[in-house]
Amino acid sequence: MTKSAVPRRHLPSSPFKAPVEAPLRHFNVGDRVSHDEHGLGRVVAIEEGIAVLVEFGPEVRKRILSPYTKMSAL
């Protein structure tokens, strides 16, 4: 089963509560971060609202896409 790229809309007449959206995370160049798969790193570049480039070592740079669910600031 595949997940649709389009979020489900909430009908006003629904007896269920509307889903709560998580607040967007914002990072700055130089921020230390922790990623669930890649470990500790430092933000080296930002593509506003799209992605951040994180350096996880001297030769390892990864582009992490928004909404950054597996990454947190330290």
Question: Would you summarize the structure shown here?
Answer:
It is built from no helices and five strands. It is an all-beta fold.
Would you write up a description of this structure?
There is one protein chain. The chain has 74 residues and is mostly beta strands. It has strands at residues 32-35, 39-47, 51-57, 60-65, 71-73. Helices cover 0% and strands 39% of the residues. A 5-stranded antiparallel beta sheet has the order 4-3-2-1-5, with no helix packed on it. A hairpin with a 3-residue loop joins strand 1 and strand 2.
List key phrases describing it.
5-stranded antiparallel beta sheet; mainly beta; 74 residues; elongated; 5 strands; single chain
Question: What is this structure's SSE topology?
Answer:
Blueprint: E1 32-35, E2 39-47, E3 51-57, E4 60-65, E5 71-73
Antiparallel strand pairs: 1-2, 1-5, 2-3, 3-4
- How much strand? 35-45%
Query: What oligomeric state do the depicted chains represent?
Result: single chain
Structural class: mainly beta
Number of strands: 5
Average pLDDT works out at 88
User: End-to-end span in angstroms?
Assistant: 36 Å
Uncertain regions: pLDDT < 50 for 5+ in a row?
none
Rg on CA atoms, Å:
16 Å
